[in-house]
Amino acid sequence: RQFRLGRDAVNASWHRWILGYSKHKQGRIMDLLGLGFAQGTAIAIVASMLVLISLIAALLWYRGRERVDPVQADYLRFCSRMAKKGVARFPYETANNYALRIVEQRPDLKAAVDEIIRLYNSLRYGQQDDAHGRSELHRLVRGIRS
Questions:
Q1: Distance from chain centroid for Cα 118
Q2: Tens-binned pLDDT, residue by residue, of the chain (146 aa)
């Protein structure tokens, strides 16, 4: 019996507040909140708030996303192109070990692979970090066609 009474109370509240929400009730609530002057603009206020919340959420998402290092991005592009040539990189494999395995299977790529890995290691691990080196790595990786 208590359950049925509770269910009826929830149902009555649903009808009173959700289904029976009229312009008159909206006006009363706006008056209670001290916003009676804005009754005609309530939809505009809600829409403005939704736009503002959306903009803030987009800004937070944009600032919080992970940025990819351009040197790492070029190395991953290189790995992808090597995989298309039949030499996929293992997840546990270092760049140097991967280069050795590529050259074993594709000796024709030795010069390009050696230069790319040398430059990648230098840029990624600190011996060199300059715009010229990054653009050179990008050019070399782009030169490897899949």
A1: 31
A2: 888 898 998 888 877 766 666 777 777 777 777 766 666 666 666 777 888 999 999 988 888 777 778 899 999 999 999 999 999 999 999 999 999 999 999 999 999 999 999 999 999 887 667 888 889 999 999 998 76
Closest Cα to residue 95, out of 67, 114, 73? 114
What is the residue type of 132? Answer: H
Inter-residue contact 86 to 105 (CB < 8 Å): yes
User: What is the spatial distance between Cα 141 and Cα 110, in angstroms, rounded to a whole number?
Assistant: 13
Beta-strand ranges (E) seen in 19-138 are: none
**From CA 121, how far away is CA 14, in angstroms rounded?**
65
CB 95 within 8 A of CB 75: yes
Whose CA is closest to 77, among 4, 16, 145? 145
